[in-house]
Amino acid sequence: MLKLTLRKAANAVALLLAVLVLNFTMIHLAPGDPVETLVGEMGGATPALIEDLRRSMGLDQPLYIQIGLYVGNVLRGDFGHSYYYDQPVLTLIGARIGPTLLLVTTALFAATMIGTVLGVFSAQRRSSWLSHLVTVLSLAGFSAPVFWVGIMLILVLSVAFPIFPISGMSDAVGTDGGLLYALDVAHHLALPALTLALIYLAFYSRLARASMLEVLGSDYVRTARAKGLPRRLVVYKHALRNAILPVVTFAGLQFGQVISGAVLVETVFAWPGLGTLAFDSILRRDTPTLLGILFFSALMVVVMNVLTDLLYRRIDPRIKIR
Amino acid sequence: MPEPLKPELLTSGPLLSVRDLEIVFRIDGQDVPVVRDLSFDIEAGETLGIVGESGCGKSITALSLLGLVPNPPGRVSKGQILLNGEDLTRAGEARLNAVRGNDISMVFQEPMTSLNPVYTIGEQIAETVRVHFGLSRAAAWDRAVEMLSQVGIPSPKTRAHDYPHQLSGGMRQRVMIAIALVCEPKILIADEPTTALDVTVQAQIFDLFQDLQERFGAAIILITHDIGVVAQMTDRVMVMYAGRKIEEGSVASFIRDPRHPYTRGLISCIPHLSLPPSDVPAPLFEIPGVVPSARELGASGCAFAPRCSHASGRCAAETPTLFPVGDGRSAACWLEVEAAR
């Protein structure tokens, strides 16, 4: 087990280094010059000042030296300085990663849990109204763009029926970190999390339904019935544990996708997470910040994959340490 | 010898009696019968063989005894299944659950897929006794370990913690048998229990069946298409063709003097080993044609007539009913009726 963990950790580190280099190269190949953008926001500058800025940011060096310097800095825990905010990237990300993780994990958790429950119910009554509703919801959830769903939810649940706040993560009241604050954040979290969850809810209910249908028709479920087990044991003990495997796999794999989905949701709801920061950084050509965000997104995906792997081993004994 | 878990039931008449059973499948909005007019009895402790080609209705008949005909599309549309006089076709789900695995249990054809991959074999045996006898976890586990030893699994204490994928096919089938017998059922249905196993393992499994039948006294319904197995294992044989019983009798008469042309065909199909010096292998016999599907069957006429070399005009027009041919045997063939005249 220790050997396996070490090997997985080594793999993860190598993967993250590759991500660093690849991201850096791609961003520098993309059109747009951070110095020009900065100078534009400053209201113009002399060519000498521009040169100066370029040198101070290290942008006058050849690309491979820039990469080397950057990777070296990152290994020492220095993700550079934001061009725009004039703050260490790590500080910026540190303040934003919490809200994003909160949003993404809440949405994914809700989507997998509710999706599985819906899928399990509809698989047992294949032609009931619930089953058809799941199919319709799935199609709608799949096809609707996330920003549109977000705006519609705001229109209905914040404007027409003002139940939830329109945007932000908390009101000015009670920012002391106490229970009041937590409730306030939860109140603000509801709509963005619902928006993000809806797309994946559709996906997971369909996945769970298909998986459950397959498992319910399997030989070992027939064995369980032939043993005289009551229905609840057949469904929730024998079938569900097998049917949940694809859900776990996809939840792990989709974590990265959910983070990218969060970019749009955070923008629509002005949620102070990494998504809005990423969006702004792209517009501002704030390369160090963007690179930092990409790195931490990759890190979250890698960590999530490892966790999925461990969970998978808990559920299915056939997956052994290799 | 394990402690008996339930008192012996005093019964008069057959243990299980199937009367005029009809099972239909709903296909394209129509009820297509896959089993028709099926009646048979089984006495306590005896072994009944059900023989026939694939698709003749053997397995679905077995599932119907447990109320496990897949619905939709299938259902029992007529007849009675009487267990000690109680009609199981009218029993509710709760009552059926009390019967399943407890009074009647079943060993399936596919040991590789019939066990749940995510639970230990000990747990899969133990839960059955927990559900039926309300034993505690620890007591049920002990009982599971004991059952594993009864079915000949070495070091049962440690193997009980194994998952199905850690066992060979033969071992898994032993586990299935342990599950089936753990509640000491009155009837054990074995649906081609060795089809998926090696020949050498097959013999071991059948030895185990015979051994356990002596110890537990269960009646066995053995479904197979292996005539050799029938000869070795059963007391009585019932031959099915296209959803109907076409012949029934003692195993000796079935082998020596089959009456229905289909049964004769089945027995002729057994290949014989030819040894030197007559080392020219005899050609393999086959029954021409294939079993008609349930949808192709007409309302009347013998279903075997198109494949039968003795068929006459009457065979195509009228469905033969079972006709006693002496010795407590019966066959559904017009030839027998004609011969008796």
Ranges of chain A with pLDDT <50 over ≥5 residues?
Answer: none
Largest sheet of chain A: none
Helix/strand/pairing category of chain A: mainly alpha
Tally of helical segments of chain A: 12
Proportion in β-strands of chain A: under 5%
Total number of beta strands of chain B: 12
Q: Between the first and last Cα atoms of chain B, what is the distance in angstroms?
A: 54 Å
Output the strand order for the largest sheet of chain B: 6-7-8-3-9-10-12-11
CATH topology of the largest domain in chain B, by name, is: Rossmann fold
H/E series of chain A, N to C?
HHHHHHHHHHHH
Here the CATH topology of the largest domain in chain A equals MetI-like fold
The CATH architecture of the largest domain in chain B can be named as 3-Layer(aba) Sandwich
Rg of chain B: 21 Å
Shape of chain B: globular
Full CATH superfamily name of the largest domain in chain A:
MetI-like
- pLDDT average of chain A, as an integer? 83
| Main pleated sheet of chain B | 8 strands, mixed
- Tally of strands of chain A: 0
Briefly, what CATH class of the largest domain in chain B?
Answer: Alpha Beta
Structural class of chain B: alpha/beta
Please outline what is shown here:
The complex is a heterodimer of chains A (322) and B (341). Chain A has 322 residues and is an all-alpha fold. Chain A has helices at 2-29, 34-42, 47-56, 63-75, 89-124, 129-143, 146-160, 179-216, 219-226, 231-269, 274-283, 287-315.
Structure description:
The complex is a heterodimer of chains A (322) and B (341). Chain A has 322 residues and is an all-alpha fold. Chain A has 2 domains: 2-75, no CATH class; 90-315, MetI-like fold, CATH 1.10.3720. Chain A has helices at residues 2-29, 34-42, 47-56, 63-75, 89-124, 129-143, 146-160, 179-216, 219-226, 231-269, 274-283, 287-315. The longest helix of chain A is centred in the C-terminal third of the chain and has 39 residues, at 231-269. Chain A is globular, with a radius of gyration of 24 Å. Chain A starts with a helix and ends in a 7-residue tail after the last helix. The mean pLDDT of chain A is 83. With 341 residues, chain B is α/β, with parallel strands linked by helices. Chain B folds into 2 domains: 16-240, 3-Layer(aba) Sandwich (Rossmann fold), CATH 3.40.50.300; 242-270 and 292-340, no CATH class. Helix content of chain B is 32%, strand content 22%. Chain B contains 12 helices and 12 strands. In chain B, the strands form 2 sheets. In chain B, strands 6-7-8-3-9-10-12-11 form an 8-stranded mixed beta sheet, sandwiched between helices. In chain B, helix 3 packs parallel to helix 6 (169-181), helix 4 (137-150) packs across helix 6 and helix 6 (169-181) packs parallel to helix 7. Chain B is globular, with a radius of gyration of 21 Å. The model of chain B is unreliable at 1-5 and 7-11 (pLDDT under 50). Classes of the chains: A mainly alpha (322), B alpha/beta (341).
